[in-house]
UniProtKB/TrEMBL annotation:
<keyword id="KW-0315">Glutamine amidotransferase</keyword>
<dbReference type="InterPro" id="IPR002818">
    <property type="entry name" value="DJ-1/PfpI"/>
</dbReference>
<dbReference type="Pfam" id="PF01965">
    <property type="entry name" value="DJ-1_PfpI"/>
</dbReference>
<dbReference type="InterPro" id="IPR029062">
    <property type="entry name" value="Class_I_gatase-like"/>
</dbReference>
<dbReference type="InterPro" id="IPR050325">
    <property type="entry name" value="Prot/Nucl_acid_deglycase"/>
</dbReference>
<protein>
    <submittedName>
        <fullName>Type 1 glutamine amidotransferase domain-containing protein</fullName>
    </submittedName>
</protein>
<feature type="domain" description="DJ-1/PfpI">
    <location>
        <begin position="29"/>
        <end position="226"/>
    </location>
</feature>
Length: 230
């Protein structure tokens, strides 16, 4: 079977326009649900981040009133897997050749660091050139913004994709004071952004790119990638 790389943010805080810092971390379902599906299908999963740093969990993803009744299961799975994995791989030391797919989960961290991480940009550019699968869910598509060439042209301009919508950001209470909003930025850079109803599963596939709008779209993203891997 295949080896899959999950690239996580290393950010634990999101600086706002008023100078305050919003605590953030990985969203449990967006790590756990894809990992669960990939492993059940027989694939091997590695984890990497900038500097190999394991960010904390986003506490909202452990709150049933925010993340739903199943969140405790996702939290337990993510904490077990990440705790047992050992040090995460350092992103700038990872090559894409060993992997069939690269997956980018959310939490707000990708809008802090991964969107401008040059090592990730090189990895995604190589992955796309080799026809490897790329998956991103919720705020994970912010990480796609790292893939620019020497002239600043964005690799994924013109591609169809889903991501956490500006409406969802407003409903979540984090739009006001955000340095920028993800869906709007993706459209500005040339993405063909598609969105569904707030907080409902919505997924888009454009060739080797698989994206999901929100945590509820995480499992479906992984399932679509598994089907494509054969």
């Amino acid at each position: 079977m295949s080896r899959i790389l999950i690239v996580m943010s290393a950010a634990s805080g999101w600086e706002r326009t008023d100078g305050s810092v919003y605590p953030t971390g990985y969203w449990a379902e967006e790590v756990a649900a894809p990992h669960e599906r990939f492993v059940e299908a027989g694939h091997t999963v590695d984890f990497a981040s900038p500097g190999g740093v394991l960010q904390p969990i986003d506490q909202h993803s452990a709150d049933p009133e925010v993340a739903g009744a199943d969140c405790a299961r996702y939290v337990a799975h993510a904490e077990k897997v990440l705790g047992g994995y050992g040090p995460l791989l350092k992103l700038d030391e990872v090559g894409v050749d060993a992997y069939a797919a690269v997956v980018l989960p959310g939490g707000h961290g990708p809008v802090v660091d991964l969107h401008q991480d040059a090592a990730l940009g090189r990895l995604l550019t190589a992955a796309d050139a080799a026809g490897k699968l790329i998956g991103a869910v919720c705020h994970g598509p912010a990480a796609l913004l790292s893939a620019v060439d020497a002239e600043g042209a964005w690799l994924f301009a013109g591609r169809r994709m889903a991501a956490f919508t500006d409406e969802e950001e407003r409903l979540f209470g984090t739009a006001e004071g955000a340095p920028w909003l993800l869906a709007a930025r993706l459209r500005e850079r040339g993405a063909v952004h598609a969105g569904g109803p707030a907080y409902e599963q919505f997924n888009v596939r454009d060739r080797n790119l698989f994206t999901g709008q929100n945590p509820a779209s995480s499992a479906r993203m992984a399932e679509d990638m598994i089907a494509a891997l054969g």
